[in-house]
């Protein structure tokens, strides 16, 4: 069901409940599908119509806080309807400091067991809420009900059983998953009359209408196709991409106004959605990005060391949310808009550096000029999409620093073991000093390589520690790791320099890093 149809159905339920026919709506949707926005807009319209709207939001942090949702509901009325003293006293009855009640036992969010005095508390709170419906229609709106505490869930079920002739509408937002998060609560709730509303992704037609209303795109229909491919119809991702587009056009009138623009807002929306739902989703998304076109649920599960059936469910969530295309990350098209445009400053004729290039040995010419590659070639879709080992990796400086951070942390990074200490140490296992035939023109004298990375050596290319290691990249970029100092560094740029290695900007950054230690 689309957003407008869902909002219209909620308005209809409000009208029915206002006539003394209690109603309950369960709104389901995937990751960032617009459930919260729908609830806020409906609550605004319900308040404008004269209903008293009480709101609450479930949270992982308060899942073990007894009556946390009920407390939010009563307090949300504000100064116009302060928390009744009797309600405050009742809520306080189960307010244990450790998530348990002396007489009732554990209050886990998925447990609906007998609660002793909680029965009395729930019954009296139900009476207060039902009495409040006598003067005006009442709406209870709970977002992310999957994180609600067990006593509050018990109250909601008790209200559902007693609201047949009340002017009461209960709207519960819940994420849609293959396996219900609260199976016992859902089983009890669905035994009684309720309305199910499942939000669907935006269609191309929906996006076309939105573009026509909110942007200056002269022909929104073909542009909508691109935004649908980019976002999968996810409302949060779409609005973030439109914000990025507006910012790009505002900053540069010559920016492409006809296609999707991906920037900071889009990246933040992706991360916000992943962190809000489930920590495991972020791991699955990262694994899909690493595997690229080879990604399958089975390979993702193998990479993460997780159960295949659990991984398949998380993959389905990401696909439904528009973050994965099939099993693969939507990276090729999306990252084309994120990659910085490179510029190239060539060496001046007659300089020593230009002479170095002119005196390269044949093997270096074959490697670096066969054909010659500069900024113009590196900015092409073909270069970015190609898989060229050790040549055209794309990433941010933070990502480069994180990669080298695995070596700097002796195999650990961000609290996780990525490599064994022995494997991390082997990376900088020296293979003997020599004059590198390809990149030797960039260094003064001989260098020593480890297993894939250069050692800093006596010349200090990667800091004063001769055992530090790193590598220089296209146009001046670099990364380094120093396990003894416990630091890593990543540097990328869009203005390419003419140096094969030891770009002056890199040298200055390395010096500043060690000066700060």
UniProtKB/TrEMBL annotation:
SUPFAM superfamilies under this entry?
beta-lactamase/transpeptidase-like (SSF56601), P-loop containing nucleoside triphosphate hydrolases (SSF52540)
Orc1-like AAA ATPase domain location: 4-171
Q: Which domain of life is it from?
A: Bacteria
Give the Beta-lactamase-related domain ranges: 362-505
Per its UniProt record, what InterPro entries does this chain match? Answer: AAA_16 (IPR041664), Beta-lactam-related (IPR001466), Beta-lactam/transpept-like (IPR012338), Beta-lactamase/esterase (IPR052907), P-loop_NTPase (IPR027417)
Q: Which PANTHER family match?
A: BETA-LACTAMASE-RELATED, BETA-LACTAMASE-RELATED DOMAIN-CONTAINING PROTEIN
Q: What is this protein called?
A: AAA family ATPase
């Amino acid at each position: 069901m689309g957003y407008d149809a869902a909002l219209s159905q909620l308005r209809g339920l409000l009208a029915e409940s206002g006539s003394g026919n209690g109603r309950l709506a369960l709104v389901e949707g995937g990751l960032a599908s617009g459930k919260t926005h729908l609830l806020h807009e409906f609550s605004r319209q319900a308040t404008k119509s004269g209903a008293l709207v009480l709101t609450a939001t479930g949270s992982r942090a308060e899942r073990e806080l007894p009556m946390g949702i009920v407390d939010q509901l009563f307090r949300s009325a504000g100064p116009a309807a302060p928390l009744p003293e009797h309600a405050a006293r009742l809520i306080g009855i189960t307010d244990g400091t450790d998530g348990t009640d002396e007489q009732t036992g554990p209050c886990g969010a998925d447990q609906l067991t007998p609660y002793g005095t909680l029965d009395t508390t729930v019954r009296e709170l139900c009476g207060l809420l039902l009495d409040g419906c006598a003067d005006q229609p009442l709406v209870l709106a709970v977002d992310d009900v999957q994180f609600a505490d067990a006593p509050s869930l018990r109250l909601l079920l008790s209200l559902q059983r007693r609201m047949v002739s009340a002017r009461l509408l209960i709207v519960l937002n819940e994420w849609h998953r293959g396996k219900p998060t609260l199976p016992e609560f859902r089983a009890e709730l669905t035994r009684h009359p309720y309305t199910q509303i499942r939000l669907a992704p935006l269609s191309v037609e929906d996006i076309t209408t939105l573009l026509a209303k909110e942007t200056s795109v002269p022909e929104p229909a073909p542009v909508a196709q691109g935004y649908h491919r980019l976002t999968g119809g996810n409302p949060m991702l779409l609005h973030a991409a439109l914000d990025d587009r507006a910012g790009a056009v505002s900053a540069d009138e010559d920016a492409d106004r006809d296609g999707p623009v991906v920037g900071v807002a889009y990246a933040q929306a992706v991360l916000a959605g992943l962190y809000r739902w489930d920590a495991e989703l972020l791991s699955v998304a990262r694994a899909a990005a690493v595997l690229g076109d080879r990604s399958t649920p089975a390979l993702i599960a193998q990479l993460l060391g997780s159960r295949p059936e659990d991984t398949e469910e998380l993959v389905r969530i990401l696909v439904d949310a528009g973050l994965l295309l099939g099993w693969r990350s939507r990276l090729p098209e999306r990252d084309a808009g994120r990659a910085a445009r490179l510029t190239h400053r060539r060496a001046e004729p007659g300089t020593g550096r230009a002479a170095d290039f002119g005196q390269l040995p044949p093997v270096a010419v074959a490697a670096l000029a066969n054909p010659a590659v500069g900024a113009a070639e590196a900015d092409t879709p073909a270069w970015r999409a190609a898989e060229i080992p050790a040549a055209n990796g794309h990433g941010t400086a933070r990502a480069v620093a994180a990669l080298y951070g695995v070596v700097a942390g002796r195999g650990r990074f961000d609290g996780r073991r990525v490599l064994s200490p022995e494997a991390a140490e082997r990376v900088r296992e020296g293979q003997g000093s020599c004059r590198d035939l390809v990149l030797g023109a960039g260094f003064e004298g001989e260098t020593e390589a480890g297993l894939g990375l250069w050692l800093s050596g006596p010349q200090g290319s990667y800091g004063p520690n001769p055992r530090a290691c790193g590598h220089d990249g296209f146009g001046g970029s670099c990364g380094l790791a120093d396990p003894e100092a416990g630091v890593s560094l990543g540097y990328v740029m869009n203005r390419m320099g003419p140096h094969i290695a030891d770009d002056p900007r890199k040298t200055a950054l390395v010096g500043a890093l060690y000066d700060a230690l």
